[in-house]
Amino acid sequence: MTPFFLLQLLISVSLTLASSHDYHEALSKSILFFEGQRSGKLPPDQRAGWRGDSALSDGSEAGVDLTGGYYDAGDNVKFGFPMAFTTTMLSWSVIEFGELMPTDELRNAAVAIRWATDYLLKTISHPGLVFVQVGNPISDHNCWERPEDMDTARTVYNVSADRPGSEVAGETAAALAAASMVFRDIDPGYSQTLLENAMRAFEFADTYKGAYSDDPQLKAGVCPFYCDFDGYQDELLWGAAWLRRASQNDSFLDYIQNNGKTLGADDNINEFGWDNKHAGLNVLVSKEFMEGQALSLESYKEFADSFMCTLIPESSSSHIQFTPGGLIYRPGGSNMQHVTSISFLLLTYAKYLSKSSQTANCGSIQVDPSSLQLQAKKQVDYLLGDNPMNMSYMVGYGDRYPQRIHHRGSSLPSVSSHPQFIACKDGSDYYKSANPNPNPLVGAVVGGPGEDDVYEDDRADFRKSEPTTYINAPLVGVLAYFVANPNAGLVLT
Q: Name one Pfam family in it (predicted).
């Protein structure tokens, strides 16, 4: 083959691999999604116009104001544990990739974060208490009704010195600390408030150690939905790591160094999500080691390398399951949460490696940043439509996307089109209907296809068809990266 034809072949391969996706559009919609999840009094500039005010008396049962925040998924409950994680990941998305976002989307992302942090500040505003949930999930899940019509019990759940919840308090500390970095230049006063309250939340989490779902009363409310399955220890390290990053206070570095082993830092668990922070913790903490500022943190880089190696097919330690079409897959439902969070870690770690001119050590091979970027690109492109179903799994993006998502507000007629009250069981006909949802929840990413790449678009199959805030939160950072680097990882050698 002549050099000319070889060059033409390489160009052809490059163009084939090059992105055909509008990452800017996807980013915009992934942030807009959060407006459809808002609880409380909606602002005048609310863009998801089919939503209305809801849950305006939240907290009154306990004599406190707990209005605001986000519904976690397709129901009408405010679960504090995943909401705090969502906030942390939205903030981390802006911290790492905000400078790559178009100005208007950076502003929208900050608004989405503040909607959450304003609520989280309320949850820790009463000394000795952290409010962790509003809404009885059993009664809520027995109804199919709009949040605007909600008449189920708005039970208030809290943790205290006698009934600890280190995972929720620790994640709340992480969320407020990370968000304080987002607002440092935008609103310095608010940033300082967030940081001070993050320290208070962390002190509570560390002083009164325990898992919130170990308490019988709390367990009845949070399980099986957001039980603490993996212990609270990782959230203590995660909270300390974010406070270290946000404050540069050496006391938090000392905490990580002194408590790492006892809190399971050496467990090297290759998971990351609302309940398990290990892989994210290793990536986050490794940054300081790679910058040469804390050599004692070398093990975090080693564990972060180990996690990355499980994702690289060429590595001898690769063991992450993929669908035949190439999607990261973990059994248990809501699979896209793994896809988006792992993709975020791939890009963030690639950034840290690149800035420090390092690679990931995978035994017999060294993995460079572009390999991690390419793996993330494959995942996000699958999500946006490059898959066996030729389907985007983001509502409103592309020509073909889920029409019947498992989401009450989206599947029921809006208050503006149907002002009459729709009672608890009266929504069942809409739930069972084969018709598309009348209110597209633009930007929502559903749980996604099964291990065979098949998606049935069935509202009743919540494991596949329900969106969640913690699917979208890390995706915001991923999409921001690809807006600026649409062909990252596609390096021809």
A: Glyco_hydro_9
Question: Could you say which of 215, 288, 453, 457 is catalytic?
Answer: 457
For residues 245 and 252, what is the distance between their CA atoms, to the nearest angstrom? 9
Residue 72: which residues within 8 A CB-CB, separation 6 or more?
Answer: 37, 78, 79, 82, 83, 86, 226, 468, 469, 470
pLDDT per residue as tens digits for the range 352-400? 999 999 999 998 899 999 999 999 999 999 999 999 999 999 999 999 9
In the structure encoding, which two tokens stand for residue 118, read together?
């304003």
Going by C-alpha positions, the residue among 336, 288, 345 that lies closest to residue 97 is: 345
Residue 61 has what pLDDT?
93
Q: Does residue 457 have an active-site annotation?
A: yes
C-alpha–C-alpha distance, residues 91 and 88, integer Å: 5
Catalytic residue, chosen from 278, 338, 406, 407, is 406
Does residue 306 contact residue 317 with C-beta atoms inside 8 Å?
Answer: yes
What is the arithmetic mean of pLDDT over 169-186? 98
| Best CATH choice for the domain 35-484 from the list 3.40.50.300, 3.40.190.10, 1.50.10.10, 2.60.40.10 | 1.50.10.10
CB 301 within 8 A of CB 286: yes
pLDDT at 15: 40
Which residue, among 76, 65, 216, has the nearest Cα to 135 in the 3D structure? 76
pTM over 0.90: yes
Give the C-alpha distances (Å, rounded to integers) separating 83 from 130, 179, 353, 462: 14, 13, 30, 19
Q: 453-477: string of b/e by CB count within 10 Å (b at 16+)?
A: bebebebebbebbbbbbbbbbbbbb
